[in-house]
Amino acid sequence: MAARQAPATGGPGDGPAEQPDRWILVVAAGLLSFVAMLDMNVVNLALTDIAAGLHVSSTTAQWAVLGYQLPLVALLLPAGRWLGQVGARSALLLAVSCFALCSVLAAVAPWAGWLIAARLAQGAFGAVLFVLMPVLAATAVRPQLRGRAMSVPATLGPLGAVTGPVLGGLLLDHVGWRAIFLVKLPVCLVALAIAYRHAPRGGRLRLPDRGSLGDAALIGSAVAAVMLGLTLAPDRPGLLLLALPAAPLVALWLRRPGGRPVTAVLRASGTAGVNGSVLALAAGFAATHYLLAQHLRRDDGISATTTALTMLAFPLGMVLAGRFGGRLADRWGARPTALTGAVVTATGLLLLVPLDSGWTPADISWRLALAGAGMGLNGGPVQALVMSAARTGQLATAGSVVQLSRSLGFALGPALGTSAALVGGSGPTAGRAGLVLATLAAATAVALLALHHRAHRAARAALPPLPEQAGSTDGASGADSTTRSRA
Fold first, then answer.
1. Is there a contact between 97 and 192 (Cβ–Cβ < 8 Å)?
2. Is 202 exposed, middle or buried (0-12, 13-18, 19+ CB in 10 A)?
């Protein structure tokens, strides 16, 4: 695509007032989204092998996954605050390099403590990547093309989440568990080369302030409490009380300097419901993926290869539809496109609810493909909706909030699905109970997106006029204002 001039956008690493469209940076954002989400899922298959290889219990081996997810979720919002104070290029190079280095350290780990430490560090740098991805894609092109640009990382991210188990299974069968940590290196090196050559220069790195570290501790504790409660409650329901401290911890964080910008962004943009829809749809998707894989392997006795091929129907549908989601958002509007995608996903999940042992893999595949097509239509437009609604200088915070919502959904989905399945009984009945919950989560996303337009208009009407309305808004031209009004 021929390069055209675009207004400057807010966020880290602001460049000159006009710059050409840099689609190569959008590609880099997509590659990093794929790698980061792949890492959240590929390790799950290797826990048994890790426990045997390092001579530890399965509970200790599970920290190879939790050690990555906890800092990732805990640091998303503090990372957004930090990125607003540093250069995007420097932060990107640092995060990609250290993320790749941690992969190598995890692959050569001689004992469990080494592996867990490497995964904790990798989760911290993964949080920076998650926040940088939407900012990088949004600022690389003109506002009129944001829907198309945001569809790239929004599609490749879930693609990495779903294809992770497939790659992991192949590597475990033919190479060994250490290889699953190295599979990401080629993609990291390509993204690193693109960032080094094409990312706009400007800004320097600086250490996070103490306030950001305090925010991370509060958010991390709240997330850990919820995850522990949901994970342990199916066996001992009373342990669900472990999740109760999360509410006061979040309330305390919202009163701190790190939490107030998030509240301000949500109030100014009116996107609280949109972020809620992102969380609900991600949770429904993650729960469905987990439950169907368990059903095929455990209840139907399907081979790992056939299961992997069946589950690939979802990302294939998502990739095919994602190619059109961004274009539809740029032409039709971000909100209608995102809402349509959520409806299609909810329909696909609803069709999976009558799950039965008599179903063939093909019966599951076409329903998964339909749900995946909806996710493809929804992902890019919903991120464009959030990023376009943010004010000048709030892109990093807005991006961190939407990524936190999606990451929470992916982390909590399997736990919610498992809890519902255990309540539902055993066999296909248990799977259907979990799929009902996943469908309800997707339906919640539909409702939140349907209500967004009214909430957005009310929020904008309650705010004083923006000083930049005389010129540009969020670094956007009048065309961006048109995009906002359509969204």
1. yes
2. middle
User: Of 351, 350, 323, 348, whose CA–CA distance to 337 is shortest?
Assistant: 323
Q: Is the dihedral angle over the CA atoms 222, 224, 227, 230 positive or is it negative?
A: negative
Residue with tokens 């076409």: 366
Give me the CATH topology for the region 259-464+471-487.
Growth Hormone; Chain: A; (1.20.1250)
User: 72-91 pLDDT, tens per residue?
Assistant: 877 877 777 777 667 677 88
Task: Name the residue type at position 452.
Answer: H
Residue 298 gets which letter from DSSP? I
The residue with greater pLDDT, 51 or 420, is: 51
- Cα 275 from Cα 157, distance rounded (Å): 17
Which segments of 87-150 are extended strands (E)?
none
Measure CA 407 to chain center: 4
- Return d(Cα 365, Cα 21) in angstroms, integer: 38
Q: What are phi and psi of 18, to 5 degrees?
A: -135, 140
pLDDT on residue 84: 67
Using a 10 angstrom Cβ sphere, with 0-12 exposed, 13-18 middle and 19 or more buried, the burial of residue 483 is buried
Best-predicted range by mean pLDDT (60-69, 242-251, 288-297)? 242-251
Query: CA dist 357 to 144, 294, 300, 302, 439, Å?
Result: 48, 12, 6, 11, 20
Q: Give the chain's mean pLDDT.
A: 76
Least Cα distance to 370 among 351, 348, 353, 341 occurs for: 348
Query: Domain boundaries in the chain?
Result: 19-204, 209-257, 259-464+471-487
Helix, coil or strand: residue 128: helix
Model confidence pTM above 0.85? no
Taken in order 147, 153, 156, 159, is the CA torsion positive or negative?
A: negative
Q: What pLDDT, on a 0 to 100 scale, did the predictor assign at position 417?
A: 75
User: How many Cβ atoms are within 10 Å of 2's Cβ, its own excluded?
Assistant: 5
What pLDDT is stored for residue 220 in this prediction?
A: 77
Residue 271 or 248, more confident: 248
Q: Say which residue the tokens 């519902």 belong to.
A: 420
The pLDDT confidence band at residue 64, using thresholds 50, 70 and 90, is: confident
- Which of the following CATH numbers is that of domain 19-204: 3.10.25.10, 2.30.110.10, 1.20.1250.20, 3.40.50.2300? 1.20.1250.20
Reduced to 3 states, what is the DSSP secondary structure of residue 273?
Answer: helix
CB 365 within 8 A of CB 377: no
Highest mean pLDDT out of 326-330, 346-350, 386-390: 346-350
Strand, coil or helix: 123 = helix
Structure token pair of residue 208: 């996070």
What's the pLDDT at 481?
38
Tokens of 475: 């670094």
CA 38 to CA 414: how far, in whole Å?
Answer: 16
Do the domains spanning 19-204 and 259-464+471-487 agree at the CATH topology level?
yes
